[in-house]
Design goal:
alpha+beta, 8 helices, seven-stranded mixed sheet, L-fuculose-1-phosphate Aldolase
Length: about 240
């Protein structure tokens, strides 16, 4: 199990760096993984720029926000996002919260984000938008409490992606690799959809059947391993 813990921590560190390299994360945002030892705990980096994260920077939290090892380093303010989703979704083993600018238009207009090419099928057919003001009024838009995080998790439902109005999004998946894959191609899909719309065209979106079949293909170990290996090769062992 110690080997599995080391592997999970290394994957979380690499995921932060991959997503920083793709512009999904900048100096803010974070990736986490559920603990394989205690499913009511999760690992997430201390408050640190994603491209700087190493396994030594990870902290372990309970769903009530308690850091279990007494690590005095400042944590992320929005770690509640991860706690709320993990508590609501036993099937979710990894989460990314990011502020990718490309997704913002879909959370502040009536424009619906939908997959337009096969590599983005894993984002799902219907992407909900969560507005923190609907339940909590005027805030700084950060998810700081479990009450707010539980509301976000309800909006996410059984899906992989939920947009956060004027803020960003959360992506919840079965593996760290799947989170990275979905985040990368979510951003690509957004650019393609907006590019098509700005050119005056109406995208032909993937059908329900196409989304289902493409998702099955994309989540196969061969596809996931190929993308993860390619992207992680840009992260040297000494870095991660």
């Amino acid at each position: 199990m110690s080997d599995r813990l080391s592997e999970i921590k290394r994957d979380v560190a690499i995921a932060n760096r991959i997503l920083a390299g793709h512009g999904v994360l900048d100096a803010l945002g974070h990736v986490s993984a559920r603990s394989p030892v205690d499913p009511t705990h999760f690992f997430i980096a201390r408050s640190l720029g994603p491209e700087l994260v190493t396994p030594a920077d990870l902290q372990e939290f309970t769903f009530d926000g308690r850091e279990v090892d007494g690590d005095p380093r400042p944590p992320y303010a929005e770690r509640a996002i991860h706690a709320g989703i993990y508590a609501a979704r036993p099937d979710v083993l990894a989460i990314c919260h990011n502020h990718a600018p490309s997704v913002i238009p879909f959370g502040i207009t009536g424009l619906q984000l939908r997959p337009v090419f096969h590599m983005a099928a894993t984002i799902g057919e219907h992407i909900p938008v969560w507005d923190i003001a609907a339940e909590f009024g005027d805030t700084d838009l950060l998810v700081r409490s479990r009450e707010q995080a539980d509301s976000l998790a309800r909006a996410l439902g059984a899906g992989r992606v939920v947009l956060m109005r004027g803020h960003g999004c959360a992506v919840a998946c079965a593996t760290v690799q799947e989170v990275v894959f979905t985040c990368v191609y979510l951003q690509v899909n957004v650019h393609l959809q907006l590019q098509t719309l700005s050119a005056g065209g109406e995208p032909r979106y993937l059908s329900s059947g196409e989304i289902e079949r493409a998702t099955t293909t994309l989540l196969q170990p061969l596809t996931q391993e190929r993308t993860w290996t390619t992207w992680s090769q840009r992260i040297t062992p000494s870095d991660a």
